[in-house]
Design a protein that fits this description.
Chains A, B: It holds the Pfam family LacI. Two copies of one chain form a homodimer. The first copy, chain A, is of the alpha/beta class. The first copy, chain A, is 45% helix and 16% strand. Chain A has three domains: 46 residues, 434 Repressor (Amino-terminal Domain) (Orthogonal Bundle), CATH 1.10.260; 133 residues, Response regulator (Rossmann fold), CATH 3.40.50; 131 residues, Response regulator (Rossmann fold, 3-Layer(aba) Sandwich), CATH 3.40.50. Chain A is elongated. The interface between A and B is large, with 51 and 51 residues. The structure holds a DNA duplex (16 and 16 nucleotides).
Chain lengths: 339, 339
Amino acid sequence: MASGRVPRLEDVARLAGVHPSTASRSLSQEQSGRIGAKTRERVLAAARELGYTPDLTAASLRTGRTMTIGVVIPDFSNPIWASLLAGLGETLQERDYTPVIIETKDDRRRFDRALEILTDRRVDGMINAAVRLTDKKRLTAFVARTPTVLAGRDLPGLDVPKVLVDDVRGGELAVSHLVQRGHRSIVQICGPGSVGPFKSRAEGAQAVVERSGDSVALHSHVVDQPTVDEADRVMSAALAAGPAFTSVFAHNDLMAIGALQAIRRAGMRCPDDVSVVGYNDNPLSQHLAPSLTTISLPFVQTGRTAADTLLSKLLHNDPPVVTTLQPSLIVRDSTAAAR
Amino acid sequence: MASGRVPRLEDVARLAGVHPSTASRSLSQEQSGRIGAKTRERVLAAARELGYTPDLTAASLRTGRTMTIGVVIPDFSNPIWASLLAGLGETLQERDYTPVIIETKDDRRRFDRALEILTDRRVDGMINAAVRLTDKKRLTAFVARTPTVLAGRDLPGLDVPKVLVDDVRGGELAVSHLVQRGHRSIVQICGPGSVGPFKSRAEGAQAVVERSGDSVALHSHVVDQPTVDEADRVMSAALAAGPAFTSVFAHNDLMAIGALQAIRRAGMRCPDDVSVVGYNDNPLSQHLAPSLTTISLPFVQTGRTAADTLLSKLLHNDPPVVTTLQPSLIVRDSTAAAR
DNA sequence: CTGTTAGCGCCTTCAG
DNA sequence: CTGAAGGCGCTAACAG
C-alpha cells in the first residue's frame, strides 16, 4: 500500500545509466551547463519517472545552506502581518527559499524561543518584524551569526538592514488631520512603549501639538496590550471623566474599534460627537459603520522589500541598507469637523 | 567581529574531554540515562560555554526525521486560521516539532506547489486545512508517503485521520435560529461549493427548511470568493430585486459584513428590517454595530487535536481516527424577530 | 558506561 | 563532459 521507498539520487542515476554525480549535475540549475544535452535529458526523464525530488535537507548539509528563512512576527491573528507574509513569501519562493514563521505574541520568552528554534534549524537568514526596544541584547548574538533584516519595527543601534515605515510621520498625519478639522482637544490611546512604532506615533502626535503652539491639548493614555478591550476601558474612563475632548487618535485600528464601542455605549455618536482616527488600515476597517479614518501602511511592500534586501545580502553580500516607506492618510467617515 | 565558526559537536566533546558520541548522548533526551552523571554534567557545561546547539538539519539526515510538520492553510489573512495555528503550534512545539506553514489562497497551483515544497523538505507529517473537494488525486500520492491529518475540511474517501467540525449542524443552527424567530423567507449567501464546509452549511440550511414543510423559503446565491465585496454585490442585487425576505444567512462573517453594508446602503436597518447570521465568529464580529449573531467554531481546539492526532500517528503509529467537534450558536444583536 | 565505526543523501572538489 | 572519492554534522549500531 505504502508506495515504497522514497527514491534517491542513486536510483535516478542507475535508471539513467550514469554516475550519481552526473545525475546531480543534470538536475541542478547551476551546473547543468557542463552536461551533455542527451545525458541531461535521460536523467530528467528518469527523475520524472521515479517521481524523484532531491532531499533539500540532506543537500543543505553539503552546501551549507538550508534554503530556509526565519520569519518572526508578533501575532498571526493581526491581518497586517498577513500582508507582510504575503509580500515576503512570494519573493522568497521565487528563489526557492522557504519561510519558517514563528509568532512571539510580544512575549519575551517566546521571542527567545523563536531565536533558539531558528538557530537549531540553521536558517540562512531572518526577517524579524517583532523586535521590541528591549530585545537588543539577545538579538545581537543572533545577528552576528545570521544575516538579519528588521521589518516594520526598528531597534536603534543594531547595525543591520532595515525596512521601516515612517511612524513619526504617521502620527503626524493622524493628528494634523484632526487639528485641521478644528479639533483642539484630542485623546491619544497609545500602544506599549516597548514597541518602537507606537513610540514613534506618539512622537509624531506630540510634534504636531507643539507646532500648534499650545492651542491643542493632547491627553495620552498608554495601554499594556493594544486591544479592543483595553481601548474600550480607557475610552470609557475618559468619557466618564467628562468629555472635554472632541476626538481620538488610537494607535491601531483595533483600539479605534474599542473606542468606537465605548463612545456608542456612552450614548454618543461618531463622528457627530467624537471623531476617531485609527492606524494600520486593517482590511475590515473600511467596512465598519462608520467607516474608519486611518493611516495606511505598505505592509505588502515592506515584506517584499525585506525579502529582497535579505536575498541581496545572501546572494551578493550587499552592505546593510535602511529603507523607509511612507504611510498615508485614508479619510473616511469616522472623522468630521469639531463640533 | 563575527563570532567565528558555529561550534560543532566535536568542539563540545573536545572541551569536555569525551568522545563526540558520548557528547551526543549526553545532550539527547532519550539516551542520557545511559551516561554517567558527572560526564553528562561536564558535557552540558561545555556546550553551554561554547553556546553549542545541535544542527537539527544534520541530525535529521541520520535519524530520518526532520522534526518538521507541514501545515497548509487557505489564507493567512483570515483570523480563523490564526486560531488553528495557535492551537497546533503550541502542541507541536512541546514535542520539538516546527511547523512549516504554507498558504494556498484556495488556488490549485499554489496547493500543488505547497505539496511539492513539503515533499522537498521531507516533512515528517502534514496537517492540511486547505483541501478542496477537487484535490483528491494530488493528495492521494502525498498521503501515501507522509502521515497526514485533515483539519476543518473533509475530503470524503481519503482514508486519513481527520479533525472536523460538524458544519451541517452549523448550518442547521443558523437557519433554525432564524426560523424560530419567525423568519419565513431567508437569503443564503453560499461560499464556493468546492470547499466542503460551505457545501455542508448549505445542506444543514436545506435540512431545516425541509423539516419546516415548505413554510420557509430559502433563496441561495453562490459566490466564487467568500469575501465582503462579493456578498455586498449579491445582497445589493437581492435588495434591488425587491426584499421579499426578512433575513440572511451568510456562510462566513466576512460575507455577513458585506450583507450588512449593502443593507445599510439600501437605507434599511439590521436587525429591524433584515436579520443577519454569519459563520465563524471572527474576533471582530462581536464589536460590529450591530454585533453579529454567528456560529462559533472551536478552531483552537481543532488545531490542538489535529496536532495530537498527527503526533500519535508519528510516535505510536496509532490508527486513523476521525474527530468531529461541534459548532455553537452565538446570539447577538444582528438578529431579531421577523417584522 | 563510554569509545569506535559507519553512513544517512547529497554535492563538490579532483582526475581523467 | 563524466566518473571517482570524500565529507558536511550527527547519531545508531556494535564493541568493550
